[in-house]
Amino acid sequence: MRRRHRSPLEIRRLAYVLILLATVVGAYSGYRDSPLGVTTSFALAVAATVVYTRAADFLMDFDLRSVRRQSTVFLVIGLLTAMLGCVVASQIVDGGRSAMARAFGYGAIGGGAAVGLSGLVATLWSFTATYAGEQIEKRSLEDW
Predict the structure, then answer these.
(1) What is the pLDDT of residues 12-52, one digit of tens each?
(2) CA spacing 20 to 30 A to 96: which of 45, 70, 105, 142?
(3) Mean pLDDT of the chain
């Protein structure tokens, strides 16, 4: 069987699609008030995190500062978006606007969780890789 080798930028685009899908599924679950949809949204957020971290791992070899900067921005924006979604979803609105407000809130929670978790894991991964590389270099320079 022949494997198709993808570039890290294609892998990162797949992560963006999974983040968008987590947002859409979260919004739909909020509109329909479906607990299964919320679970699916968070499963898509975890999948997006794995794919985004894999792409970041490849890209760290070439441009570490850029990867760290983007993952830090993702972390901040994702957490702020998820908190905004929590505030909007918790508001009690009368009439037909209730479902739309809940859909917007749940979509923001799903998308924010996907973006924030991707940024968090990629940031931690980059600092862990740097630390491990420094420790290996330090140990290799010691006299035995």
Answers:
(1) 888 899 999 999 998 888 888 778 888 888 999 999 999 98
(2) 45
(3) 83
Number of domains observed in the structure of the chain = 1
Instruction: Classify residue 141: in a domain, yes or no.
Output: no
Q: Which residue has the tokens 């987590």?
A: 22
Q: Of 107, 131, 101, which Cα lies nearest the Cα of 26?
A: 107
Distance CA 36, CA 13 (A): 26
Which element (helix H / strand E) includes 126? helix 97-141
Residue type, position 20, single letter: L
Report the half-sphere exposure of 142 (CA within 13 A, side-chain side): 7
Query: Does residue 93 lie in a domain region?
Result: yes
Closest CA to 106 of 26, 24, 20, 25: 26
Residue 23 domain-assigned (yes or no): yes
Is residue 139, in this structure, part of any structural domain at all? Answer: no
| Contact between residue 109 and residue 37 where contact means Cβ atoms under 8 Å apart | no
Query: With helix as H, strand as E and coil as C, how does 3-68 read?
Result: CCCCCHHHHHHHHHHHHHHHHHHHHHHHHHCCHHHHHHHHHHHHHHHHHHHHHHHHHHCCCHHHHH
Give residue 35's domain range: 8-134
